[in-house]
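Appendix C reproduces, verbatim, an entry submitted by the partner laboratory led by Prof. M.T., so that reviewers can inspect both the input and the predicted structure.
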Amino acid sequence: MKKLILFFFLIITLPITAETNNSVAQRRAAHLRHGINLSEWFAQVYDPKGYTKEHLIGWVTADDIALIKSMGFDHVRLSVNPEPMMRHNMADHIPPDYLGYLDEAVKMILDQGLAVIIDMHPESEFKAKLVQQDNFVEQFSDFWRAIAQHYSTYDPEMVYFEVLNEPEFRDPYRWAGVQAKLANSIREGTPHHTIIAAGANWSDVQDLLAMMPLADKNVIYNFHFYDPHTFTHQGATWGVNYWHFENKLAYPASMETAEKVAASEPDPVNRLAVLRYGLDHWDAHRIGVEIGQASEWAKHWNVPLTCNEFGVYRKVSDPQDRARWLHDLRTMLEQDGIGWNMWDFGARDNGQGFGVVNGPKEGPNTSDEITVEALGLKH
């Protein structure tokens, strides 16, 4: 009789435990409503000197974090490149000096009452090894377990672990297995913190819709939104070659301005891409339809959702057009109850990147008022 009672007890309690874990992730997602990415600090450092002590302790200051708080953000997504910390075949032995710099950065963020997402954000070459080499997946798993264990004593309401930024896996089934293994290693390192997971390749809406949730219930799912890239990446010198020919392409989409911009494209295929932007009716409604599909996916699986990257490159885009796109996307996310994290803070980019600040080469950063207003925050 006792065995029978125990059997029924397990049947009853196991679903409740899973539901509770899911509820934890749902509740914690509420801490991640209005965020900003901190890039070029512990990742995307292309200076030949690399990740030096001087860079790591000085690129972002306590005044910058205070500015982020004052603008009304509630969390920060901290990009971390694992490569400088990963030792070959000793990935779980993280150099204490480097880890100390990361600890100071995390502390500086938490001291302002901001939550922090520790986002693994390596270069493409690193991710290519994960695509091709099982042994490298094992090493990265060891690394993640060690990182998670190191931060396991930090408040799980304030510290989150993002498995991998934009995995660049063209095979979603390979990524499903790799992400599950990495998430399991994080969970082995810390039983209570919330994990942030995403779809394969560029983690866009389509990648999200193609995935199935992890078995772990304490997970928030993430997607990125830069559509249409023809508009959001105009003037950029990476990615698709024709972007750098574009200048002042309007939003909402307009055939009049699309035709003017297309005329400056020397290649006929690229001209067609710009003209299609004008024909595609990109406006708040179009964005809302796309976001709505991500929202429906989350509702179907009963999982929390966040948008961890979106933005418009500032170099040649019209500030008002950029603000309209940011406003429309942010509004559509909020209408569907989806938290967001803009790309990015933009320290020292002098208004040439995606930033929410007008960062001079020297001196303090200042908020870009039109951007902050588009985000519905204070300035």
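Residues 2-29 form the longest helix (28 residues). Additional entries are available on request from the coordinating office.
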